[in-house]
Amino acid sequence: MLPRFNALQVQTISDAIEQQGYIVLPSFLSEHSVQALVSRITSFKKEAFKKAAIGRGFLQQQNSAVRSDEIHWLEQENQTDHDFLMLMENLRQQINQQLFLGLFDYECHYAVYEPGNFYKKHLDALKGQSNRVLSTVLYLNDDWSAADGGELILYAEDGTTKLQTVLPAKGTLVIFLSEQFPHEVLAAKKIRYSIAGWFRVNASDSRKVDTLE
């Protein structure tokens, strides 16, 4: 069973989001907890993953010049996936209490970057159009060094000033405002595992039903 966020963790996360818009939490999960997720992602056969796309709805398309990773959405029916989703649900509720963001739900997928794969600089949300508010990335990689590549580069809103370079080391969790921070994933030199997710607000109204895409 994955742990719940404690009050100190939630306060630390909330303060960082409010003050600078992002936070990097090294060794966030215990070895036992993160290993369950590692075992899960490495248990899939290759055909369980699909090429990731860019855009949403009818604008969604695959573009290997922009991103070349493959993904598999987490499933509530699987106990390991369920435990992680419940952990993030706990975080959603507590962040709402702290920051009043109106976060409605959380969607996430496993991501696999084969050697040479990358994701060029982008925003997770289109300003004024998307309902993604907070992005998260949890890394699932053993013995990762800078020589292995695959770092996450987080940029300021100007898109050029580097704020942080994050090594995708096992157990590290990154959280940042989806509309504010352009970011990219550098080409990995060995297989790279992560869980990418987004806390969303509810975009539904009387004319349109909100859905996961």
Report on the structure:
- With 213 residues, this protein is an alpha+beta fold.
- It contains 3 helices and 11 strands; from the N terminus they run αβαββαββββββββ.
- The chain has a single domain, classed as Sandwich (Jelly Rolls), CATH 2.60.120.
- The strands form 2 sheets. A 7-stranded antiparallel sheet has the order 1-9-6-11-4-3-2, with helices on one face.
- A hairpin with a 6-residue loop joins strand 7 (152-155) and strand 8 (162-166).
- Helix 1 (7-19) packs across helix 3.
- The protein is globular and about 40 Å long.
- The two termini are 28 Å apart.
- 30% of the residues are buried.
- Residues 57-63 and 204-213 have low confidence and may be disordered.
Key phrases:
213 residues, alpha+beta, Jelly Rolls, 7-stranded antiparallel sheet, 4-stranded antiparallel sheet, 3 helices, 11 strands, 27% strand, globular, disordered C terminus
Label the overall shape.
globular
Estimate what percentage of residues fall within beta strands.
Answer: 25-35%
Low-confidence stretches: 57-63, 204-213
Average residue pLDDT:
86
Strand order of the largest sheet: 1-9-6-11-4-3-2
| CATH homologous superfamily designation | q2cbj1_9rhob like domain
Number of strands: 11
Over the alpha carbons, how many angstroms does the gyration radius reach?
16 Å
- Ends apart, CA distance between termini: 28 Å
CATH class: Mainly Beta
Topology:
Elements: H1 7-19, E1 22-25, H2 31-43, E2 50-51, E3 70-73, H3 79-99, E4 105-113, E5 119-122, E6 132-139, E7 152-155, E8 162-166, E9 173-177, E10 183-185, E11 192-200
Antiparallel strand pairs: 1-9, 2-3, 3-4, 4-11, 5-10, 6-9, 6-11, 7-8, 7-10
Helix pairs in contact: 1-3
